[in-house]
Specification:
By secondary structure, the protein is of the alpha+beta class. About 35% of the residues lie in helices and about 35% in strands.
Length: about 160
């Protein structure tokens, strides 16, 4: 019985380095490294990317919807310090909760909107704008413009007064 346990222990000790090749290789590299390299003088570790801060309280106007310039329509967005998104969709005003998240994520809640009547072209633009806004999942600042991306499209907004 003791011989079997001893044999099992020897086999287990031999099998562990084979089961964890990454760890065993790291130990071998550590044995081959100079003391300066082990102290951190080897290859530099990459710096973590700086987390961007969402520009709360700034007013933005839509300049492109799904890559197409918007010149004849006006739509706006502002997310205030209370994480309330408000704006104008081209025909109606709207409001929604909007939460900038870590790693440049964005969550937009259900949108409340006024019910003015406008021409069909304006209402179609407003609908596309609000659908893209509601579906936005990521944000970024690119060349001074706010870019919102999601499953329903991409909005590019320029800072307005």
């Amino acid at each position: 019985m003791i011989r079997r346990l001893g044999l099992a222990a020897v086999l287990a000790a031999l099998a562990v380095p084979m089961l964890m090749p990454g760890e065993a290789a790291a130990q071998r590299r550590g044995a081959l490294m100079s003391p300066e390299e082990r102290a951190g003088g080897g290859t530099p570790t990459p710096m973590p990317q700086q987390e961007k801060t969402f520009p709360l309280g700034a007013s933005w106007s839509v300049v492109a919807l799904n890559g197409k310039p918007v010149q004849d329509r006006r739509a706006t967005l502002m997310i205030d310090q209370n994480l309330r998104g408000t704006g104008f969709g081209g025909c109606n005003t709207f409001s929604a909760s909007a939460y900038p998240l870590r790693q440049q994520g964005l969550a937009v809640g259900p949108i409340a909107i006024t019910k003015r009547s406008c021409d069909k072209g304006l209402l179609d633009f407003e609908k596309a704008f609000l659908i893209a806004l509601r579906a936005a999942q990521k944000w970024d600042i690119v060349n001074g413009r706010l870019v919102l991306k999601g499953g329903a499209g991409e909005l590019t907004l320029s800072r307005s007064l």
